[in-house]
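User: Hey, my collaborator sent me this sequence without any context and asked if I could get a structure. I don't really work with proteins. Can you help?
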Amino acid sequence: MNKKISLGQIISTRRKYLHLTQEELSDKIGVSKSAIAKWETDGGIPDRDNLKRISEILNLSVNDIYRIIENTDGQSKELNINITRDVIAILESYGYSVIQPNENDTNQ
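Assistant: No problem. I've predicted the 3D structure and written it out in structure-token form, which is a compact way to encode the shape of the chain:
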């Protein structure tokens, strides 16, 4: 069974884990509550500066976020990861090299 996880799900799950409302998180970041809702429903992604603030507030590094996406269910080779080109660009702006798996290679 393939399980998808997105940046929005990570933000939403971690925010709830820390008992923050969307409004509280928006106040801490300095954006509107609707921006948080948009990110959490994958209607958009935070820019680099907001992603940095999110990672600090939610106590997650960009590396942690990448690891969560990669290791869902502990079986990254069976994941169908919902990661957009914009998220890849943000990860790459932090110095990460994102390699897309070859769909024909089942050993990934």
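In plain terms: The chain has a mean pLDDT of 76. You can pass these tokens on to your collaborator as they are.
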